[in-house]
Structure formats: C-alpha cells, structure tokens
Write a structure and sequence with these properties.
- The complex is a heterodimer of chains A (177) and B (108).
- By secondary structure, chain A is an all-alpha fold.
- Chain A has two domains: 1-88, Up-down Bundle (Four Helix Bundle (Hemerythrin (Met), subunit A)); 134-177.
- Helix content of chain A is 77%, strand content 0%.
- Chain A is extended and about 60 Å long.
- With 108 residues, chain B is mainly α.
- Chain B has one domain (9-107): Helix Hairpins.
- Helices cover 73% and strands 0% of the residues of chain B.
- Chain B has helices at residues 10-30, 34-59, 64-95.
- Chain B is elongated, with a radius of gyration of 18 Å.
- The termini of chain B are far apart.
- Classes of the chains: A mainly alpha (177), B mainly alpha (108).
- Chains A and B meet through helix 1, helix 2, helix 3, helix 4 and helix 5 of A and helix 1, helix 2 and helix 3 of B.
Chain lengths: 177, 108
C-alpha cells in the first residue's frame, strides 16, 4: 500500500468524493420539487452510503446497499411514480403558509442535526480492548446460520408476507373499477 | 485529529448520519406527495443504518452484529416499500390523487 505515492491523499480525496455524493444525493432527494428527481437523488445518496460502508470495513454491506436500495427499492419507487400522478400539486394554500411550513421544517431539521451531532460527538464511547471476530463475510455467514438463524428465517417470512400483501392490496383496487 | 486519518475517525460518520436524518425529517414535513414522504423515510433508514455501522466499526467487540442488523434493516425497508407502494397505488385508484391533503374522508 505504501508503494503508491500520496496514497493517504488519494484515499482522502476518494473519501471526500463519497461524502460529497452522499450529501448531494440527500439534498436532491429532500429539496427537489419533481418527484422523479427525488428518486434519482435517493439513488445517488445510496451509492454514497455504500461507499461509506466500504470505508467502514464492510464491503459486503456496500454491495448489498447498491443491490437492494439502488437496484430494487429505487426501481420499485420509479414504478410507483409511473403508475400514479406525481407532480407536486399547485399549492392551494397561501404562499405565506408555505414559507411558514418550510421555515418550520428547516428549523426542526437543523435542531435535529445539531443536537444529534453534538450528542454523538460528546458522548463517552468506550473502545473495546479486543475484537471477538474480524467482521468478514465468512463471519457474517456463520453468524447468520448459527446465532441469527431464527431472525434470518423470520425476515424471509416477512418479505414473503409483504409481497403477498402488496399483491392483494394493489389487486383489490383494480377489481373495484 | 490528523486530517489524513479522518476516514478512520467516527466523528464525520456520526455527523453525516445526523445530516441524513435531518434531511429525511425535512422531506417528511415538507413533501406533499405520499411517494415523496416515502423517499424521505428511506433517507431516515439510511441514516439509522449508517449510525449503526459507525458504532459497529469503532466501538463494538464483535463487528459482525451490526452488519447483520443493517442487513435486517434493509430487508425490512424493502418490505416496507413494497407495502407502501401498493397502498399508494390503491389510494391513487380510489382517489385519483396521492396528495395526503386529499385523503381526508375520516376528517369530515
């Protein structure tokens, strides 16, 4: 690793890029007026979060984030956008109440951000002396099939029930017409 | 704190997770369509996952636990999106609108 010149600088540049991608995606997802741009922003944000997972020593979760969020969740939301009318409605409330709501939302978001940041930065976080496992993909697989086998099976059941429920709910609306 | 080692410090991940949560809450308050609120909810999920992964990376003796927890969060988020979108489509078929202010029959 130390063979490459300026390796720490390159790593820092990649990290800054990933953080920038995450922040930009989150801002696009929250602030854009057209909903399809919000979905695209969510995709960008999830790619950035996957990069952050990679920096957090977990390449498996980075791949899963891209696979599930960008590949499945966002595409499903795009289907939802296509199947319904999605433009933000012409605001029938007054412009003043819009500004008031926007200001309130911004205030709440800022308070949450500052408070949680300060709280998590100030808190005493004891660092463990020794690591029990290395957190590799092999360790994840072993834990999923031994310690967490019951939740693992339950989550597959939850997904099955969710798919069936989604079919039933969407179909009931169709037969009614 | 050395700037070159900033990606090995938990601070920036914590601040970023709080930022994602704040944007999610902002979107949840500000959006006026159900799908927009769903997107904001996904941002909040991402914030929670990032926070758990940060604690898992720096402060937990067994780094496997947090990764499995985040995997379960992803599964639950997928199930939630499937159900929420089918509800949104059913609502759209009945009301011809997905704006929360139009769906107010119980309010009358």
């Amino acid at each position: 690793m130390s063979e490459i010149p300026f390796a720490p600088v390159i790593v820092l540049a990649i990290f800054a890029l990933i953080v920038g991608v995450t922040v930009a995606g989150a801002l696009i997802a929250a602030l854009s007026t057209r909903i399809i741009r919000g979905v695209a922003g969510l995709m960008v944000c999830c790619v950035g979060v996957a990069g952050l997972y990679f920096f957090l020593n977990s390449p498996f979760l980075a791949l899963m984030e891209i696979l599930i969020y960008v590949g499945a969740v966002c595409i499903t939301i795009v289907f939802g956008v296509m199947l319904s009318e999605t433009d933000e409605p012409a605001s029938n409330a007054s412009r003043r109440s819009g500004i008031l709501w926007g200001g309130t939302a911004m205030l709440v978001a800022a308070v949450v951000w500052v408070t949680l940041s300060r709280l998590s930065l100030a808190g005493p976080w004891p660092v463990p002396a020794t690591l029990v496992s290395d957190g590799s993909i092999r360790a994840i697989g072993l834990a999923l099939l031994t310690t967490y086998s019951l939740p693992f099976e339950l989550i597959s059941l939850v997904l099955l029930v969710a798919i069936l429920g989604a079919l039933v709910i969407a179909r009931a609306g169709r037969t009614k017409e | 704190m050395n700037l070159l080692q900033i990606h090995q410090q938990p601070a920036i991940y914590f601040v970023l997770a709080a930022f994602l949560l704040a944007t999610g809450i902002y979107g949840l308050i500000r959006r006026r369509t159900l799908i927009g609120m769903l997107i904001a909810g996904e941002l909040i999920f991402a914030a929670a996952s990032l926070n758990i992964m940060t604690v898992n990376r720096f402060f937990v003796p067994d780094p496997t636990v947090g990764q499995i927890f985040v995997l379960f969060i992803m599964g639950l988020a997928a199930a939630e999106v499937a159900i929420a979108l089918s509800i949104i489509i059913a609502v759209y078929r009945n009301y011809r609108s997905i704006h929360p202010s139009d769906i107010s029959e119980l309010n009358r």
